Amino acid sequence: MTPTPFTEQEIQQLRAETRGTSQVTHFNNAGASLPTNVVVETMVNYLQEEATFGGYETELKYKTELDNTYDLIARLINADTDEVAIVENASAGWGLAFNGITFNKGDVIITCEMEYVSNLIGFLNVQKTYGVELKVIPNDEHGNFPLQALEAAISPQTKLIAVTQTASSAGGMIPVVAIGKIARKHNILYLVDACQSIGQIPVDVREIDCDMLAVTGRKYLRAPRGTGFLYVRKAVQDKLKLLLLDGFCTQWITESDFKMRDDARRFELHEKNRALTLGLSKAVEYALNLGVDRIWQRIQLLSASMRRKLAAIDGITVHDTGSQQCGIVTFSVAGIESTHVKTELATQHINVSVGLAKSTLIYMNKHSLNTIVRASVHYYNTDEEIEILCKALTTIAAE
Q1: Which of 86, 156, 179, 366 lies in the 20 to 30 Å Cα band around 143?
Q2: Residue 143 burial by CB count (10 A; 0-12/13-18/19+): exposed, middle or buried?
Q3: 218-227 mean pLDDT
Q4: Could you count the other beta carbons within 10 Å of the beta carbon of residue 278?
């Protein structure tokens, strides 16, 4: 069923509930979205209560709300609550999952050209340490991930398929559902980096059929910085080593033995910022109330409009390829460094970011790109803001 589009009145209400929209034109949602007022107020109020009544006492008061965060996340990604761990960010979650796998010499990891720098470092580390082989499946000439090439690359030595659904420095997307079918057919562990996906794209871990999925809060989910979560399929949890242990990870402990928890919270440590956890909870709840399918519909409309308008400006090259594209729009201005473009836009209170080669190294090297300008839209952005960006870029390109 086609989602119901946002009305103009709804968009204005959503902007009113996001105080930052009155101060900046924010196209850096792939870096960190503007949080809603309720997320900020929730965190501030919690911190004030901690300061007034004590940290442990305030945590006890809000125990139900804190625990409900896991339920909300589970609803968001169609998981069971005991398959969710709250972590600091996607890199932390991805690292806990990836480094929990036991690798041996001769094992093979298959990945895509869109992998993020942190993940690539992880691959190179086990390559150096254990003699693991890394196979990269490049996108085809149209920017699409070739599923037949993935199928052909699989061997009895393949230990893991690990892909990033939406790259840091490109607008194309990896077909994680189709890859999941291949991984399951061959009984291969499957790890998905959904750092840029959650909050803009409907993500269903049952449909993807992944074993592990890592997420950050600050990007399209509009949660605080320093928040994220990790999904680990129940059947896989006992197969992953734990990198850090404390009393929270255990069901029981004696002087001579201990037993781990029987849920994904075994991947957490006890001490974390409870105010941030509540902020994450409110952000997830906000997205669920709006409907991620509606969010995704609007983001696709806005990003397609932005690409068309940018491509019409002399001197600007839009770099995004692939049959399905997301809210991340990447481009360059002929003869002008991306950092200069970003700085000039910032003087007009327009926020974009610069994608560095190292962020998506394989993809950037393949296309001989050192840097790109990244303008990432969210549902609270408007056509008028896109016009403001394009007008400013027209002037910069003519310099």
Answers
A1: 156
A2: buried
A3: 98
A4: 23
Alpha helix (H) ranges present in 131-175?
A: 147-153
Both tokens of 341, joined, read 């473009």
Q: Which amino acid is at 306?
A: M
Judged on CB neighbours under 10 Å (0-12, 13-18, 19+), 333 is buried
Q: If DSSP codes are grouped into helix, strand and coil, which group holds residue 2?
A: coil
Distance of CA 178 to the CA centre of its chain: 19
Q: How far apart are CA 264 and CA 202, in angstroms?
A: 22
Predicted confidence (pLDDT) per residue in 167-188, tens digit: 999 999 999 999 999 999 999 9
Whole-angstrom distance, CA of residue 221 vs CA of residue 163:
20
Residue ranges per domain, the chain?
8-34+291-397, 42-289
For range 121-141, the mean pLDDT = 97
**Mean pLDDT within 358-364:** 94
Structure tokens at 203: 């993500």
Residue 247 has pLDDT above 90, yes or no: no
Q: What is the four-CA torsion angle of 201, 207, 213, 219, rounded to 10 degrees?
A: 10
CATH class name, domain 8-34+291-397: alpha beta
Give the domain 42-289 fold: Aspartate Aminotransferase; domain 2 (3.40.640)
Q: Which of 352, 334, 335, 356 is nearest to 344 (CA)?
A: 352
On the CB side of 135, CA atoms within 13 Å amount to 18
Identify the pLDDT of residue 250: 87
What is the reported pLDDT for 382?
98
- Residue 128's SS3 state is helix
Q: What's the pLDDT score for residue 330? A: 98
